[in-house]
Amino acid sequence: MSRDRRRRGGDEGPAAGTKRAEILVRVAGALGRRHDEVARLISDEAGKPMKTARVEAKRAMSTYTFSAVEARKLAGEMVPMDAAQAGEGKLAFTLRRPIGIVGAISPFNFPLNLVAHKLAPALAAGCAVVLKPASQTPLSALLLAELEEEAGLPPGWLNVVVGKASEIGDVIVDDERVKAITFTGSGPVGWKLKARAPKKRVNLELGNATPVIVAADADLEAAATKLAANAFSFAGQSCISVQRIYIESSAYRAFVDRFVPRVEALTVGDPSDEDTDVGPVIDEGARERILAWIGETKGRVLTGGTLDGELIRPTVIENPPRDDKVSCEEVFGPVCTVNEVTSLDEAFELANGTRFGLQAGIFTTRLDTALRAAQELDFGGVTVNEAPTYRSDQMPYGGVKDSGNTREGPHYAVREFTEEHLVVVELP
Length: 428
Ligand code: NAP
Description:
- With 428 residues, the chain is α/β, with parallel strands linked by helices.
- The protein contains 15 helices and 17 strands.
- The strands form 4 sheets. A 7-stranded mixed sheet has the order 10-13-14-9-8-15-16, sandwiched between helices. Strands 5-4-3-6-7 form a 5-stranded parallel sheet, with helices on both faces.
- The two termini are 28 Å apart.
- It binds NADP nicotinamide-adenine-dinucleotide phosphate.
- Residues 105-110, 114, 132-136, 165-166, 169, 184-186, 189, 193, 205-207, 239, 330, 332, 358, 404 line the site of NADP nicotinamide-adenine-dinucleotide phosphate.
């Protein structure tokens, strides 16, 4: 294959990095120009409040912009050959080559930006993609495909297949031409896909039951404000929605007295209204499951727990036992728990005490407590004096334990979509 042919794209191989970066930058620009339309589409198809949909639409611009940077700096590394006797007289380096066709499967809750976190780094890496978006929210993904095409993506490099998960998923998993799968969604589906595809690279971004610790010395005003907003944004349907709050005894009452009124002040209503904070959950099945979990809890419901029309009111449950579903499973709804603990030791033990490990947080004014949390919380990410719901798109984002096995964020995802190719040269 000639150099020109290799650079042209289409069937001949990926376009040069500069061309891929230009496409990615153009998509970011289009997302900016069409911001209102994009945010409205997310809100309409997912029932996401406009405030939150606008944030998602802006973040997708960031995801494309960071991916463009990666397309321009994709490089291998020098190998220090003379570090070993066997390497003396040799020069060696690696090239990063695209892994091949990527199969991408995405969830309903961030129908634009979590699709962007798959498409944009894959294009930066030079990989073609077959995407299966969530059945409940395919429209934002189709819009992104349209924007990529308008930005100059050659035919064949992105293929969006909508329809039944079982059928499409099976084809993506079984087809030998698909070399890597990137999946964001629920744990049972993700781990099953990985077990079925032992020869593929299968990158999993899964759920959490997000804990946060409020130490006795914390700024309680700040903690209450941030946690009230981040336990209920998009009705708790984020993999890092605040779910379990552990508060040291001496601060417990003061925290709860600040937290509950802030939760009650959230505006529940129509997601298309720009003032709404909390809208619906994705469907009736999810609503009934969440109400059943609230009904089963042995904790005390401090606020919420009932419907406001068809919407679940933001719900705070006090001191549920650790084996309650709301304590140990992912609620994925507008529910969080407040738990009084007698010591930080107990808080760390409970925070780590589920099978999940995506992100966790701590509020404290003490450096030693913050550093202890950084070391002892067994999660992919730890936030200090910020809700663990925080994510900026260049961060390495992903979980340990049942929450996943990879890191997204363009710089990290590009590594997953490429392979190192070693070149050894005998020096004259
Ligand atoms: P889900 O039910 O697991 O669905 C995710 C995707 O997998 C959808 O596209 C779904 O298609 C597809 N799917 C379902 N069964 C499949 C199968 N047998 N083979 C292949 N594909 C299959 O998850 P969800 O309800 O959309 O999303 C919520 C979950 O995602 C939560 O657990 C949340 O924590 C997690 N999540 C994790 C992150 C992260 O970055 N760690 C981010 C967001 C969400 P259909 O829609 O057609 O069923």
